[in-house]
Amino acid sequence: LLQKIKVINLRYAIMLIHHNPILRSNLGAQMPKMDAAVGVVSKTSSYRSVFPRQTQHLRTTSPCRAEPQEKRDGYKPPSISDPNGQVRLRSEVEAPWRAVRFTIFGFSAVSAGIGLLVNLPQLIGALGGAKNAFGVEEIGTNIGINAAVVAVCVFLLSRDLKARDKQMARLGREEALAACQVQLANGKRKSLAALRGFARIVVCAGTNAQVAAAMEAAAPYKDELIRRGVLVVPAPVFEPPSSPTGEPLPPPGPEDLRWRAMPLQMDRWKEWFEKQLSVSDKAVPDKGLYLSLRKDGRVRSSGMGGPPWALLAAQLPPEEGVFKGFLDGMDGRV
After folding, report:
1. How many other C-beta atoms are found inside a 10 Å radius of the C-beta of residue 14?
2. Which tens digits make up the pLDDT trace of 52-71?
3. What confidence score (pLDDT) does residue 77 get?
4. Of 215, 193, 194, nearest to 203 (Cα)?
5. Dihedrals φ, ψ of 201, to 5°?
6. φ, ψ of residue 315 in degrees (nearest 5)
7. How far apart are CA 178 and CA 295, in angstroms?
8. By the 8 A CB rule, do 183 and 264 touch?
């Protein structure tokens, strides 16, 4: 096999010499001897005649074609169409050190537990009067320390797990809300997720009369709220179909492009609010509900009745001026 490899390599070298006029002229009379040593290789021989199998492989395989990344290593980039992946990604961003704490608490609890298992036979031997046994006081101290470490680590780990579950539930609700769609005044249809980073969404939910009352209360603060990037979505999701409480709001006009958007697919909006009502025991839709989102899509505040327009106009930073961009994240505590 090695001899065949040597012959093939030599043939390939001779082929390259044949196709290189400078090398061919320098070797001159040595070329016939080299041909006779390994067989006849004509000047018209090609790479395909020397390496037919390799040439066929190169001809059928495109060097510029690459397999998708998810086929190569199983990684699937997160997208808004995959709520679970998006929730996990946002959870890691909000709490980047949680995985480190899990590792530290877990290994510490396991280490102390192993030490505790070792201490128990030592204690039995000391109580039984075994030769060369440790003192009972020393073993008792070690058992107390290991038991305390296990208890503390388990407590911290369980508290972190509860916080993670609570955070994942909140992020899941936020991602479900982000899938709801609105129609802007220019006719474009966007999901709330597509408006992240561009607007602070305030949703007014209730009946037609409650939504109209909330919009009327916001009229004195309209200019200030627009300067602060507030986009209002009046959603009459609790309007009884049999007995209307009032006329629905007209579609937003061109002057409302940065002020008001019309909700689409009202069933999805209603389903989302009904799920929130099932979670909270205090919230009732009798007086209407409101929901205020930060620019990053997180829920800033929520409650019954109409939104606190005066507080929003006073607390939210303006979109223009000296502090434009610098205070985008200063939307208040979640």
Report:
1. 20
2. 444 444 344 344 444 443 34
3. 37
4. 215
5. -80, 135
6. -95, -35
7. 12
8. yes
pTM confidence score: 0.60
Phi, psi of 195, deg, nearest 5: -95, 0
Residues in the chain with pLDDT < 50?
38, 40-81, 323, 333-334
Pairing of strands 200-205, 230-235: parallel
In whole angstroms, give the CA distance from residue 248 to residue 246: 6
For the stretch 220-263, pLDDT in tens is: 999 999 998 999 999 888 888 777 777 888 888 888 888 999 99
Question: Whose CA is closest to 91, among 184, 21, 161, 13?
Answer: 161
- pLDDT at position 90 is 74
**For 301-311, b where at least 16 C-beta lie within 10 A, e where not — what string?**
bbeebbbebee
For residue 317, give the DSSP letter: P
Residue 197's pLDDT is 85
Alpha carbon of residue 245 to chain centroid: 42
- φ and ψ at 289, to 5 degrees? -130, 155
CA 280 vs CA 11, 167, 276, 302, 303: distances in Å: 82, 16, 6, 12, 11
Structure tokens at 298: 């997180």
Query: Are the C-beta atoms of residues 246 and 209 closer than 8 Å to each other?
Result: yes
Angle, in degrees to the nearest 10, between helices 83-94 and 136-178: 130
Helical axes 136-178 vs 98-127, angle rounded to 10°: 160
Displacement of CA 267 from its chain's centroid (Å): 27
Q: Answer whether 93's CB lies under 8 Å from 78's CB.
A: no
DSSP structural state of residue 96 = T
pLDDT of residue 240: 82
Q: What phi and psi, each to the nearest 5 degrees, are found at residue 8? A: -65, -45
Which pLDDT score, from 0 to 100, does residue 28 have? Answer: 60
Burial of 147 (0-12, 13-18, 19+ CB in 10 A): middle
Cβ atoms 139, 127 nearer than 8 A: no
209: Cβ–Cβ under 8 A, 6 or more apart, which residues?
Answer: 245, 246
